[in-house]
Amino acid sequence: MTATHDGPRTSAPAAVSLRGARLAYGDRVLWDGLDLDVAPGEFIAVLGPNGAGKTSLLRVLLGQTVLATGSVEIGGRPVQRGSSRIGYVPQQKSFDPGLPLRARDLVGFGIDGHRWGITLPSRSRRQRVERALTEVGALPYADAPVGQLSGGEQQRLRIAQALITDPDLLLCDEPLLSLDLSHQRSVSELIDERRRATQTAVLFVTHEINPIMDKVDRVLYLANGRFRIGSPAEVMCTEVLSDLYGAHVEVVTVAGRLMVLGVEQEPHHHDHGGHR
Amino acid sequence: MTGADGLARFLSFANFWELLPLVAFSLAAAVLMGVMAGVVGPMVQARDLAFAVHGIAELSFTGAAAALLVGASVISGSLVGSLIAAVTFGVLGVRARERNSAIGVVMAFGLGLGVLFAALYTGRTANKFGALVGQPSAVTGEALGVLAVVSVVVIGFMLVLWRPLFFGSVDPDVAVARGVRLGLVGPAFMLLLGLTVAMAVQIIGALLVLSLLITPTAAASRVTASPLKVTLLSILFATTSAVGGVLLALSPNLPISPYVTTLSFLIYLACRLIGRRRTRRGWSARVPVAA
Description:
By secondary structure, chain A is α/β, with parallel strands linked by helices.
């Protein structure tokens, strides 16, 4: 694997730096003693069962949840809510087909959606949005209502929206969920190309490592309040995961796909609907 | 009475030019109302609040009826009812499904109270249900003054809130990640909506406010997907309906509401027809790409 961050870049601080980080809700400890340095341009997959605290890790980095103990820095500075140094790609969800919101409007939110006031038409803003659309190959449907685009097209817009401020860090929360296999591949390839081109570090929360297996530099596996960090080959093996889960699990490769047997591997949806 | 006479009764222009100066206040009120409703409408659509608007309007009627009963001013009663309803609906479930049944529960009870207050009121009966269905109103100077102040407040705050509110309404996950405070902009919008609805109740009646707050935006979003154009068209459509309604109701001396609702509906039908052609042609010069 050719990681682009080879050679220590002493000048650039780590994109993410967690030290002795502990996250707990009351008595329930999600993870503890987490030390993690993410180098600029590094691609890290965050894996683990439901409730292991994968999304909570993103919330900590977004400044929405506070660590119980330990410290967290983004690009050498403390976390801050709504920072333009972080891009965020959520899981795909459908928009109402009649919603008056074009592809270019969704991407434009990435520039100034959080600022007070109204958006007046401006040439430089328009060019910036069109550049971002071009980079993800979305210019042909720039004026289409987002609700009438496919899931894969919408996720391309999400990536353009998240990267338009040229952030140091891209956080993705199950961005491939509900996409078909070809869209899963094209969206993950797009993220991979961009992090190499712009040195944007990527934390990619997923329940399914296969679409990004050949792209990630390291895996952070969270389970049972514990974690393991390392290359995919180091972490994704029977011994390590059995130890992490405290029960025997079997990691096997079937037809080129890695499978973890003996573990519930449900995608986590954001609505906690309970029993149905 | 023949059919032609009947029609002439609804569409009469006798003495039109002599009557016109008398409704200068009503026309000014219609313009203010149209602009305010047109600005608020797209956000009602984006936040899926159509049913909440209906609920706020009916509780505004309850407030007006209560004010009538205790001898207070109808406008302030209407405002109080509207704002209480808007704040209540704002803190109810965030998800549309939960929210809508709660609104239904509160609205039905509130409207019942309003009917009771109106029945207990012993004054002029014309006032009783005017707030529900509108009346042939000569807008008073005082009412116009209140409307002018409220519309400046609503439009001014909408200009400030616009971008984070729209972002937070259509794309909440990313908006929160980017620092939009949904807990602030959402409730702030509900207050502005409450003010707008209370004003619309005075002009067109509680049961018909949807024709100014929902229909113009629904029509506009049939012909364009640009948020800016939807807003401008929504203002144009709401103002045209309100002003046209005042002018058409002038000679027959009937309530303006049926004229406003009809104009607004005709605009919607026209936009649907245009929109259908547009959908057939496609929204943009879009070429299929392997996304």
